[in-house]
User: Which sequence fits this backbone?
């Protein structure tokens, strides 16, 4: 990612509102990409970010989850787990491609394309300042929060 063109990508959130990251300049963003709504690892990750949201908010930081699920799926997932942050629907894969997280996966010998669980920190100026790839959900949200606190 050599430029900030990703800031202009327009996606729908879990309520069907069109959003772009450029509209959030002035705040830090935790942008986390996950494979699929309401699956075990993705649910744990979302709940961990949910539980730490007040602390992220104290540090001028908002959380956004991104997957290729549709708006209805995101809405159900958000409601079921009382997620206090928005989930962005990237059905066409524009943002996942821009961040390089649409990759070939190998599960039980079967190759397929999917989202590599990844997290990016975007600063107030709209620049990516930190990334985690191939994330393990255990303690990841805490690790991200500790990084935010160190800024």
Assistant:
């Amino acid at each position: 990612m050599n430029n900030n063109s990703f800031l202009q990508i327009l996606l729908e959130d879990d309520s069907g509102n069109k959003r772009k990251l450029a509209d959030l300049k002035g705040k830090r963003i935790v942008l986390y990409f996950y494979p699929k709504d309401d699956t075990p690892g993705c649910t744990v990750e979302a709940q961990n970010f949910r539980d730490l949201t007040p602390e992220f908010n104290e540090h001028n930081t908002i959380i956004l989850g991104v997957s290729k699920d549709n708006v209805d799926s995101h809405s159900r997932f958000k409601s079921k787990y009382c997620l206090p942050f928005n989930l962005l629907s990237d059905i066409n894969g524009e943002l996942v491609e821009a961040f390089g997280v649409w990759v070939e996966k190998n599960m039980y010998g079967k190759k397929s394309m999917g989202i590599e669980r990844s997290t990016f920190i975007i600063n107030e100026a709209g620049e990516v300042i930190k990334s985690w790839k191939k994330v393990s959900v255990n303690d990841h949200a805490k690790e991200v929060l500790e990084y935010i606190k160190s800024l």
